[in-house]
Amino acid sequence: KNQVEQSPQSLIILEGKNCTLQCNYTVSPFSNLRWYKQDTGRGPVSLTIMTFSENTKSNGRYTATLDADTKQSSLHITASQLSDSASYICVVSRSGGYQKVTFGIGTKLQVIP
Amino acid sequence: ETGVTQSPTHLIKTRGQQVTLRCSSQSGHNTVSWYQQALGQGPQFIFQYYREEENGRGNFPPRFSGLQFPNYSSELNVNALELDDSALYLCASSPAASGEYNEQFFGPGTRLTVL
């Protein structure tokens, strides 16, 4: 079964601190993995996208890593800001045909002053 | 802003009613996908349209149907609403059919509440 599991489910950190969110998947055959940021009640916004051959990608203070062998990805947030408070969703796509995407349930991050 | 808009923002319906949700994609994006996101869950794929034809469907019953129009707008129709249909409905557009690498641009969503 194609699944995407994220951990932790929720996280509270102090402003300025770093954090790392995890994503494990069993989706096959693998096409690409995306990390999205979703503010409460809003649509997801893409942060990074990685294919099989890419093992790291950065977008400002966000750095995603991918280990396609172990089927694990992480999203590292550096020097967190209050505006980073949101849900972070890992999305894995399968190869072939129309977009076959599996979403994780997300990690809810709260950054406090 | 992603350039994808949805209407209405919020909607309240009662069981058994029908609802139509609307999405306006980015110009030039021929593919639109619809997702259902229950509270505290990740989005679940409903279906995808490419050039006005449905070309993929998730595990949703036939009372969920859609339309895509040449002007890059689309609709999600849900008949015989059930309480469990209460969710945030997201549309996402992308510029290609299979779009395996192509990014999906999400709209802000429509919050549907079924009483």
- How confident is the prediction overall: mean pLDDT of chain A? 91
- Alpha plus pi helix count of chain A: 0
* Uncertain regions spanning at least 5 consecutive residues of chain B: none
Greatest interface:
A-B, 26 and 33 residues
Number of E-type strands of chain A: 11
The residue-averaged pLDDT of chain B reads: 90
Which characteristics define this entry?
heterodimer, A: 113 residues, mainly beta, 6-stranded mixed sheet, 5-stranded antiparallel sheet, globular, B: 115 residues, 7-stranded mixed sheet, 4-stranded antiparallel sheet
Walk me through the structure.
The complex is a heterodimer of chains A (113) and B (115). Chain A is built from no helices and eleven strands. In chain A, strands 2, 4, 5, 9, 10 and 11 form a six-stranded mixed sheet that branches. A five-stranded antiparallel sheet of chain A has the order 1-3-8-7-6, with no helix packed on it. With 113 residues, chain A is mostly beta strands. The N and C termini of chain A lie far apart (41 Å). The relative contact order of chain A is 0.34. Chain B has 115 residues and is mainly β. Helices cover 0% and strands 50% of the residues of chain B. In chain B, strands 2, 4, 5, 6, 9, 10 and 11 form a seven-stranded mixed sheet that branches. Chain B has a four-stranded antiparallel sheet with strand order 1-3-8-7, with no helix packed on it. In chain B, a hairpin with a 2-residue loop joins strand 5 and strand 6 (53-57). The interface between A and B is medium-sized, with 26 and 33 residues.
In short:
Chain A is mainly beta and 113 residues long. Chain A has no helices and eleven strands. The model of chain A has no long low-confidence stretch (mean pLDDT 91).
